[in-house]
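Sharing in case it's useful to others searching the archive later.

Someone asked me privately for the predicted structure of Urease accessory protein UreF, so I'm posting the question and my answer publicly. Question first, with the sequence:
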Amino acid sequence: MRAATATATPPRTAITMAMAMTIDTAALVRLMSWLSPAFPVGGFNYSHGLEQAVAAELVSDRETLKSWLDALTTRGSAWNDLVLLAEAWRQAGEGGDLAETAQLAEALAGSSERHLETMNQGSAFLAAASAWGQGIAAGLGPRAALPVAVGACAARSGLPLEATLAAYLQAFLSNQVQAAQRLMPIGQTGGIDVLSTLEPLIGEIAARASRSTLDDLGSSTLNADIAAMRHETMPSRIFVS
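And my answer, the predicted structure tokens:
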């Protein structure tokens, strides 16, 4: 008996991902400004628990760093950030009340340092983004978690959701790689290798997060969460988190 055959859905190639995230030049420039290392949010101060992970030898080379970042992106804090960003983007675009989303994002910070990291960066982002007009952060006040701040401001600037999610995730992963370069001997070439390997994942997860709802929130990266907590008691450290 002949086996039944089915047509598989083709994988998202670099070209199809680029088509899905088509963005005009003005919007691209704004995203590059907001999510570049030069934007004054102080991202270089935070390792998101990576410093403790390196000290505990959970992350020690390119491959373990890739695995660590893959986990954060697909089922950890980075994924939750994208879901929250998407919700804030929708609420702001529809003129909804951002207060509940902002409160939820703050409550989901799993440790005191994670809370400090997202709230300090979010507040700094809102202050800097006010250069594009005071109304851009309406409904948030001076303080909000970073993904909520970025999502709301992006919606009010007419920036497309999927491209904003991809840019946000790439900025987060780049900051993690820069932290790793200061913590262990992977060098610039190794760091670029990690980022290039993660490019397809960024496109895939941005597309998935653009279709997400708050029901998709969830994390199963216990080692990363514990590392973020243990970092608070490290006797000697470079990073705030």
